[in-house]
Amino acid sequence: MPYFDSASAAPLHPVARQALQASLDEGWADPARLYREGRRARLLLDAAREAAAEAVGCRPDELVFTPSGTHAVHTGIAGVLAGRRRVGGHLVVSAVEHSSVLHAAAAHEARGGSVAEVPVDRWGAVSAAGYEEALLPATALACLQSANHEVGTVQPVAEVAEVCGAAGVPLLVDAAQSLGWGPVGGAWSVLAASAHKWGGPPGVGLLAVRKGVRFSPQGPADERESGRSPGFANLPAIVAAAASLRAVRAEADAEAARLRVLVDRIRRRVVRLVPDVEVVGHADRRLPHLVTFSCLYVDGEALLHELDRAGFSVSSGSSCTSSTLTPSHVLRAMGVLSEGNVRVSLPPGTPAAEVNAFLEVLPGAVAGVRERLGVSEPPAEAPEADALELDTLGLRCPQPVIELARAIARVPVGGTVTVLSDDEVARLDIPAWCAMRGHDYLGETPRPAGTAYTVRRRS
Amino acid sequence: MPYFDSASAAPLHPVARQALQASLDEGWADPARLYREGRRARLLLDAAREAAAEAVGCRPDELVFTPSGTHAVHTGIAGVLAGRRRVGGHLVVSAVEHSSVLHAAAAHEARGGSVAEVPVDRWGAVSAAGYEEALLPATALACLQSANHEVGTVQPVAEVAEVCGAAGVPLLVDAAQSLGWGPVGGAWSVLAASAHKWGGPPGVGLLAVRKGVRFSPQGPADERESGRSPGFANLPAIVAAAASLRAVRAEADAEAARLRVLVDRIRRRVVRLVPDVEVVGHADRRLPHLVTFSCLYVDGEALLHELDRAGFSVSSGSSCTSSTLTPSHVLRAMGVLSEGNVRVSLPPGTPAAEVNAFLEVLPGAVAGVRERLGVSEPPAEAPEADALELDTLGLRCPQPVIELARAIARVPVGGTVTVLSDDEVARLDIPAWCAMRGHDYLGETPRPAGTAYTVRRRS
């Protein structure tokens, strides 16, 4: 059964499983104890730290193990903000960071700190100039992901690190999506990562803090992991995480080249096989295994169910999935279509045949959802009026866009359709629809109930 | 090789291992996802939560999984303190709590809160009256362990919960040492525990918060685990934790009865086999598998090494172990001897033969350490003076007490020996020595360098 959501969680790598099982016997004792079981655990912990540090590109004493990537991010951000409190309370993040970073930023704001969000371009990338502009004399820390988790765009970490370095601001890199593929280049100061993203077990994150970075751990004291990660070490999982990182790295270049071919195939074919689809994310500067696209007139959750029934496990940043009514903040920051969004992230070892099977199934799945939603080509008819207004209050994504698409033929070229909607996603998806269909988006006007979005027919 | 430190970490229970291995295949995906791997993970997580809640004695929606017992304690204390901020910033803890509780209390104090420590008696037990006295109108939370981790004394949780309940103060119980043996009785409000203490895997803690307790999670937001425990769920370990808790509970009564016999044997024999030894902790109200004793004139670390060489893994609360120069806060709060301290905690399944072997080895191990320290019976000699003063500045535990024991014969009955020491442990061990040897402890006087402890010879 093809599982195409390795950006969420990768199945356990065989090396991780072996290491985990071996260290269940050798590594259950407290590594702080003086007896043989404790000494054995300490040796395993030290060896795991050395292996992980080598893969990260830091010194072993700069790296600690945390219970998750989220803990690594939270601890890293809180520790640097507290350590550099005298500099100021200003934090810089990109608009497309993982929620763990954005939630830490929100917590910082709630405590009286200030946060600047660096915008991204249509492909999801920040620029070094964007960071340069956001840095203030009071900036204590800047954060940037190595690559985006939803659209795969690789960020210019080295350039941003240079800009931050010149300003004396440490850069924290969330390397969760990329560490399995290779070390993060550039002069970063703090790095966070998560083992279950590279095929390691859940329960392990990495936090590397370069010597010289002012760091003040927050929360109750705990002597373990250099005082930076409280609680009894999850040693079997740590050993498995380090061993599997080494193993996936050994296969990374060859596997990246192989998966890149499969992802390229999806990128090329999906726009040919499925009408009204937009591939999002950077075409070249991207992770090798991940591709994201959005389908007009499609309910993301319905499409996920359809694909799941056909045997394919994928993810979505659409608003109408996962019990959230807001679309992915990443797609929003990029200003791209969010409806019918599908993220495909291939685990290492994915056979080409599975990708081909997916491309065979996808067009029918999309068509099926569209049919159930009553999407059909509007019949050619004489325009009714120069300007139409549609009341879609109470309708949720993708209905407002479907109504708009039906109505556009009812005005002449040069005429306008105004959509009144109280669905937040309309703000994103109506302009995106205009860009895809070649119509003019004229802007939005607040109304007593909802917002009016106006479109001019161009063809 | 006998491992007698299950109070630190227990070897993995066979059921935990089976459940862990099974759920590595079934439980690696994100339980929040809609596809089959996610749904399967969600089912496993729900079942684990139900099983754990049943063992704890709470509703499943009152229980969350954390990355460790320490995280459960930190999160529980911070959440209740914040949720009841309006009541006040006063926290009550016992003097013998686990360091995770005391460190959380210290962090609370550092942020401007106040903390009261409830004292214990010579057996390590608090009293309900002690809590009653400590509760203030501004008390937001009281904390009490179910049983002490160093001496095994079981605390009167139900009585303390009653006192707290009458005052409208929630009681957080740290059940780390006892949960494998049975549920915690009484009307507690919050409960924390740690899976690797009962033979579950490392990486899992439990936090139960009864409905109606005001609880405000601290730190960055995260939607997982009811917003109370951030980070990707360590599902294989959670499944193993729940399964093993159920398994150890099924065996708990029989195993407790069996281990109680072995521990009783150690308690009775050790005082006969080893001269100058004191068994600490409550004789009856105690955990079934744990016994702690201290040996006069013995360096704890040297004794641990000696026992390790003989194949026995035990722990110590002595000052001279584990790179700390202060003795265990538990022994200090109890006012008992801390030198040559040994904690024996038997894992379930410990055969009687191993305990017998330990009792055979112990006397020689203690004697060996004493011999190397130059401990010998002071030769009977004519008293030199009515009052002697010993300068032991710079000498570390157990040397000041050894010097005192040598010198006591040099004064007549009724005469005094004053020990000048800058070793913090002397404050604890000299009075304890007097109590064991039947001499009078006359008190301490600060000196320009160190402290003078005076003893009157009684026999």
TrEMBL record, chains A, B:
Q: What's one Pfam family here?
A: TusA
Q: Which PROSITE patterns match?
A: UPF0033
Q: Which residues form the UPF0033 domain?
A: 390-414
List, alphabetically, the CDD domains matched: SirA_YedF_YeeD
Q: What is this protein called?
A: Cysteine desulfurase
What does this protein need as cofactor? Answer: pyridoxal 5'-phosphate
Can you state which reaction this protein catalyses? (sulfur carrier)-H + L-cysteine = (sulfur carrier)-SH + L-alanine
Source organism (scientific name): Streptomyces amritsarensis
Name the protein family: Belongs to the class-V pyridoxal-phosphate-dependent aminotransferase family. NifS/IscS subfamily.
The UniProt keywords, alphabetically, are: Iron, Iron-sulfur, Metal-binding, Pyridoxal phosphate, Transferase
